[in-house]
Amino acid sequence: MDYPQQFDVIVIGGGHAGTEACLAAARMGCRTLLLTHSVDTLGQMSCNPAIGGIGKSHLVKEVDALGGAMARATDRAGIQFRVLNARKGPAVRATRAQADRVLYRNAIREILEQQDNLSIFQQAVDDLLIENGRVAGAVTQMGLTFRAPSVVLTTGTFLGGKIHIGLENSAGGRAGDAPSIALARRLRELPFRVERLKTGTPPRIDARSVDFSSLEQQWGDTPVPVMSYLGSVAEHPEQRCCWITYTNERTHEIIRGGLDRSPMYSGVIEGVGPRYCPSVEDKIHRFADKSSHQVFIEPEGLTSTELYPNGISTSLPFDVQYALVRSIAGFENAHITRPGYAIEYDFFDPRDLNYSLETKAVPGLYFAGQINGTTGYEEAAAQGLLAGLNAALAVKGHEPWCPRRDEAYIGVLVDDLITMGTHEPYRMFTSRAEYRLLLREDNADLRLTEKGRELGLVDDLRWARFDAKREAIAVETERLAATFVHPGSAESAQLESKLGKPLTREYSLADLLKRPELEYADLAGLKGEPLADAQAAEQVQIQAKYAGYIDRQQEEIDRLRRYEHTRLPADLDYSAVDGLSNEVKQKLGDARPETLARASRIPGVTPAAVSLLLIYLKKRGALGRADQRQSA
Amino acid sequence: MSTLSHLDGDTIVAIATAPGRGGVGIVRLSGTAARAIGESLCGAPLTPRHAHFRVFRDSSGQQLDSGIGLYFPGPNSFTGEDVVELQGHGGPVILDLLVKACCAAGARLARPGEFSERAFLNDKLDLAQAEAIADLINSTTEQAALSATRSLQGAFSREIDALVEAVTRLRVYVEAAIDFPEEEIDFLADGKVAEQVEALQTRLQQVLQAARQGSLLQEGMKLVIAGRPNAGKSSLLNALAGQDTAIVTPIEGTTRDVLREHIQIDGMPLHIVDTAGLRESADLVEQEGIRRAWEEMASADRILLVVDGSSPDADIASAALWPEKNQRLGADLPVTVVHNKADLSGRPPAVIQQGGDTIIELSALTGAGMDLLREHLKQCMGYSDAGGDSFSARRRHLAALAEAAACLEAGREQLQLAGAGELLAEDLRRCHNALGSITGVISSDELLGEIFSSFCIGK
User: Fold this and answer.
1) Which of A231, A570, B123, B241 has the CA that lies 20 to 30 A from B286?
2) Chain B: nearest CA to A401, how far in angstroms?
3) Under CATH, which number does the domain B222-381 receive?
4) Is CATH 1.20.120.430 what the domain over B137-216+394-439 is classified as, yes or no?
């Protein structure tokens, strides 16, 4: 039957991408439907129980700055919070939280259920409704048809999923979810390029069987960090510690003894695994000279006795897993609650997407999350939010939006994916962002919240908090620039111990703040009241310390921006462009970049190749006046 | 990330005349700052479409050349942008100095074909002409690459490769420490990185020095004229210098006894130093002059030992005639023996190989045999007239190396003063990009690949 109610946006899949997608569309006022095969697993963390980390917390905070749910749920579910890289400078600091799976799921469920304009329906989706070449809705297993002009597909690893434990394998989705065969078949009929990836998980362990007495404890930071700009420590549940243990020579011997029955080493697995998250058998094989590897033991939650031993992901047969686990200190008598496994799955080449995450082949259809070849909850959430907001913008008849590489890690993520595709599960790292100094986790709100407000993603509460903070930063920055310390004054004497020598001339507080020896706290109270808002004070300090570098990055951005607006026609025949090498023709043809700027970012596309493209466009009359060089 | 260098608003500069020696050489600027840069070199305002006779000077006021300055405001110009032409005396050295001064004033070296490209994009060339531009970009890119290779021959090229590799290694350490703080590979904290930065700086300075000094083509060969008093050293200097119209910068020596000339032979730059006559002397001033003469010779690329061809000295091999040279400077420093005063000795102008010496018979007074000397000097330097391309290629490389060195220094300071690993990382990224303009850029994903193959990463 046709479901009687018409929707604007349908989101299929209730993982981290799907929840952010439907919440974003609903926040923007679209009548939104979330279709999930199980309401009980909404917001499920199917891999390790942690949110954030290097590069990833940046994404979480950007999602938060745009009104998303992930950071807020993390604050309500986090049982250990740490700031990584705390001593390495603000641009690369990253908050990481261990999360209680149940609390996290509950927090997400609560946020979903309180969201206006959002309906949830439990039923597996078997088919997409496609009319006149564009998406028109989705059909569920029982034949129910839901109609909407925008559909966001966030179905994770369900496509062609194959689970390996030793040489045994079976069709399956992640963590016991049933694979959706019918929808997979349907999608394969559409003109998307499909490729295969692999990932894995470690065996889980029952805490009651672990001897913690010999293990090193790892507690969270004090003061306890928070994830959301609106979050507070008061929201956090009880805090717990993690533990660290190590593999040893005997562990490695056991693993080596089992390699002949490893699906990886016997050639059963074809998919490419992530380089940054190798299985334990990979580690000892590739780095044979290392006699020991760290294992981080993470609690799955306050009410669970399961532990996640991070670092021993494996697809070796169960008997080898059993022996290798028990060879590790603390795990001598460990009981495995779930065996580790590797999963192979299909993903769609993200180069078939526009920057809005809409598929090039089927207008109105958006892909977000693992289906695009990424890994990680945070990467999924970021794409979900973006796909959801663009699905909503399309319904409203507005132009799509995606932050640029210099505005957000979300922009880096999407730009990398649609420009270069990926050959391994794509994970965010700060080194992927050339404008890393601008894209900090501490300023995601300053970068994005105003845009989020304009898009309708940011509610009044968040906006008011943000506005006050922004105002405080501006006022305080001005005050520091206009307040001077004179040599020989009492204030100067106070600074002398820090500076190691007296001031020789007068300096503004803003200038003094640029010095590595001085902090905001040393200066702000010298003449007048320091800011009470710690977040704002932090911004004032960071902006001063980074000023020269930020200006230079900004210049680089301004210089490169021109080609962001030079569009490359979707049907451009690269083989007809005079002078391009065959290699460059091939790369451009595969990627079909939307703009000249994207083309220039494809490895191997030289400045000369960009010139040739520009000349070709001009010859075809495909350059808008605005694209052309303006004479002075 | 690959860097687009071709941008709205930025001002490009290049030598517009064909490479090699010509009567007139033109340096062309195009872009928003063309006028300002042109006026700073000319030292006075340029009226649109007027020919101004000016002395061209660099920012320190050093005279580079004199000639005509022309300003064409856009859109009525070759490229459609503001264009300035500086028309001076030909010769790659002067033109290169002008380009260098333009770059110092804010211009960027144009890529091959970039002027034509801008002209086409601004509707200044028709479609038929445009067909040629693609070819031009291609062929000149190849040519530039060729001359770049030529200019970076052998050991120097290997040095650059080694340098890029060292920067990559360093970035691998720094980025790994930043992106994988839980992996027990915090090189930023253990001082290893600071050491490596400094080692890299030393190395980069050496390469930069080699690039500057090692290239006779770029900076000119240093030729010291030595010999007994009255052998005719000064007249030889005058003969060499005087016959070339393009005397660039005659600089008085710091003492009355060392005189320098900067001349060109067919566009080949040559620094000539005329030294005090070498002899035992009781005169304190002259002794000082002689000491300085030895100092000059120690840094020379070649010595011209001038001998009075009409004196008995002409029959003695240079090693015997002047043993102090080999004793004090070693046998490796090449010597060319000039038998001057051929008009008196009556020997015909010639190049003679004799007893391990290269001897040139000539007369500085009449000029007979001077062309043999010039040809000999050109051969010694491996100079050919087609050196223009190498000049701009080398200018690019020097600029890239200097930029890389500046980035490294900034990064070192950040690490030392503020312990700021993330700022060091940013400076290393810029350093890498600068070197990448010579050898090709490395993408962030390739860098990550290096990290993953170097360290066991991953929980």
Assistant:
1) B241
2) 23
3) 3.40.50.300
4) yes
- pTM of structure: 0.80
**List of long-range contacts for B444-449, beta carbons under 8 Å, 24+ apart:** B444/A431, B444/A432, B444/A434, B444/B1, B445/A416, B445/A420, B445/A432, B445/A603, B446/A603, B447/A431, B447/B168, B447/B171, B447/B172, B447/B175, B448/A275, B448/A276, B448/A429, B448/A431, B448/A432, B448/B175, B448/B179, B449/A275
Cα(B90)–Cα(A549) distance, integer angstroms: 41
Q: Which of residues 222-281 of B touch A (CB under 8 A)?
A: none
Query: Using one digit for the tens of pLDDT, what is the confidence trace for A353-373?
Result: 999 999 999 999 999 999 999
Q: Using the predicted structure, report yes or no on whether residue B248 has a pLDDT greater than 50.
A: no
Minimal-distance CA residue of chain A relative to B120: A615
Within the 155-214 window of chain A, which residues sit less than 8 Å (CB to CB) from chain B? none
How does residue B334 score in pLDDT terms, banded at 50, 70 and 90? confident
Stronger pLDDT, B152 or A442, i.e. the higher one: A442
B11-125 homologous superfamily: Probable tRNA modification gtpase trme; domain 1 (3.30.1360.120)
Q: What is the mean pLDDT of residues B429-440?
A: 84
User: Is A544 part of the contact surface with chain B (CB cutoff 8 Å)?
Assistant: no
Q: Please give the pLDDT value at position A30.
A: 98
Domains within chain A, CATH numbers bracketed: 9-199+345-455 (3.50.50.60), 204-224+237-344 (2.40.30.260), 470-561 (1.10.10.1800), 567-620 (1.10.150.570)
Q: How large is the average pLDDT for residues A562-578?
A: 87
Q: Over 60: is that where the pLDDT of A444 sits?
A: yes
pLDDT in tens, A342-351: 988 889 999 9
Indicate the domain borders of chain B.
11-125, 137-216+394-439, 222-381
